[in-house]
Amino acid sequence: MQFDSMAAFISMGGHGRYIWTAYGLTFAVLAWNLLAPWLAQRSFLADEARRLRREEPGEGET
Amino acid sequence: MQADGMVRPSLTRALGAQLRRDLLLVFRHPQDVVNPLAFLVMVTTLFPLAVTPEPSRLAEIAPGVIWVGALLATLLSLDNLFRGDADDGSLELLLLAPHALYFLVLGRALAHWLTVALPLAVCAPLLGYLLSLAPAAMGALFLALLIGTPILSLVGAIGAALLAGVQRGGVLLFLLVLPLFVPVLVFGAGAVSAAQQGLDYSGQLAILGALLALAVTLSPFATGAALRITLS
Amino acid sequence: MWNWLHKLGSPPWFYRMTGNWLPWIGAAAALLLGVGVTWGLLFAPQDYQQGHTVRIMYIHVPAAILAQSAYMMLAGAGIVVLVWRVRLADMFAEACAPVGASMTLVALFTGSIWGKPTWGTYWEWDARLTSVLILLFLYVGMIALRAAIREAEAAARACAILAVVGMVNIPIIKYSVEWWNTLHQPASFSVTEKPAMPPEMWLPLLPCLFGLYLFFFYVVLQRTRTTALRRERRKQWARAEICRQLEVPGAV
User: Fold this and answer.
1) pTM of the complete model
2) Which pLDDT score, from 0 to 100, does residue C211 have?
């Protein structure tokens, strides 16, 4: 391991704020990339549920 | 008269007719020529006001300012390249014509260049003078714009064709096409800057020429395909 | 063989297959990224010039590579749309654009942050960063075009054309930006062009890069699945799938 202590790890030789901001931003973007499609899928299913409730009962054809 | 009884004019006559029509349209709407020019002059005037009227510094930014102004002016006028025809149905006729869409599109871009971009290139040295551009660079400015502006017309036509069916085209055309103009800008403005420093600029012009050759060969295919999509 | 290719373009088949693969892709991505980032942050050596800031490379370089790869994939899918009219390819392309754009943003941000302690400034008009910025503009244009055209078939082919035109232009743009850069910065210090990096330094890049690729596919395939469901929702297979998912709300 390149670091002696947790404090040394966080400070990264004085460059801590650059490195952690960079990694933080990256993970935020990756998290958004995971979240956005999941939310889109959920909202699509909710729309479909509404549509099916409107259209399906009593309707036999496409 | 052909075997199937159809009368098919030659390609040259078709292109001539199209060119005549486009020129006539511009003649009847002179604002299509004057507006982009006025825009270029006004934009050029903004820079001394915004930056500094000091000649040496103006001369330094002059190539870039004129080139960007010409780019924006061309883009503004491209927006309507196909939209009017898409709206009134002439676009369908263009696609139904017995001639290859490739050449008709090329003819349309040529008309646009002749009526819009060429005047910009001609007026550019005057604007260069306003911005204290070195006299040695005037020739380079005119030549670079002469070779570069057809590329703008041709590549911009692709964007115009893609958006001909979209009513709120506007800024979207800029977004689509500006990244594609970067090489023309880099070499075009680079040529003028080099000339201003007394360096040889034939290399830049040669590359512009190569880009023009590429644009003439390839872009009408994309424009034609885009037109077909607009009408689908 | 044509049979297999045909299946490849079939949305229900795609949906079923990705349903099986995705958990594995996701797990592998998480594993590789976890290993790569831990390795890069904790075990890789620091650079004798840049100190620990070189660790930003482990996210910057993969993001930049992916940003460009994603556009190539987008263009490839566009060709498939134009030549073979496979609608699934367009769904894939639609999913690629925002994810690719976000990778470009990561590359720009991390590149910029890396620049501050290294060059002393948050932005440097060097060839790499400038090219990536223009790539971002290409993505923005693509997303904007898709949003502007309402009809799905027309939007698919328009975006495909734009992608192909963009792909042809990218080498030209890169060359022109590099030429422009050499003119104005004769002695530029480019952070990624350094004397041979020791393996201890570049090895962690590999799991990070592959992990990010797998992450990219995971996200893009998820988006493509939802798009496929949405566009085909009137069809039998989609209706069956939707009903199945609505019955068991937690299943995605």
Assistant:
1) 0.89
2) 96
- Give the C-alpha separation, B14 to C110, whole Å: 55
Q: Which residues, including other chains, have CB under 8 Å from residue B45's CB and lie 6 or more apart? A: B130
A35 has a chain C CB within 8 A of its CB = no
Touching check for A43 and chain C: CB below 8 Å? no
Write a three-state SS string for B204-230. Answer: HHHHHHHHHHHHHHHHHHHHHHHHHHH
DSSP B23-82: HHHHHH-THHHHHHHHHHHHHHHHHHHHT---HHHHHHHHHHHHHHHHHHHHHHHHTTTT
Nearest-CA distance from C80 to chain B in Å? 15
In degrees, rounded to 5, the angle at the alpha carbon of residue B52 between the alpha carbons of residues B48 and B55 is 85
Contact C106 A25 (CB under 8 A): yes
**From the CA atom positions of chain A, what is the Rg in Å?**
24
Distance CA B21, CA C137 (A): 36
Compute CA distances B120 → B112, B138, B145, C165, whole Å: 12, 14, 8, 26
Angle at B222 between CA B220 and CA B224, to 5 degrees: 65
What does the pLDDT look like over A25-54, one tens digit per residue?
A: 999 999 999 999 999 999 999 998 898 888
DSSP C122: S
pLDDT-derived band of residue C189, with 50, 70 and 90 as boundaries?
Answer: very low
Residues in chain B: 232
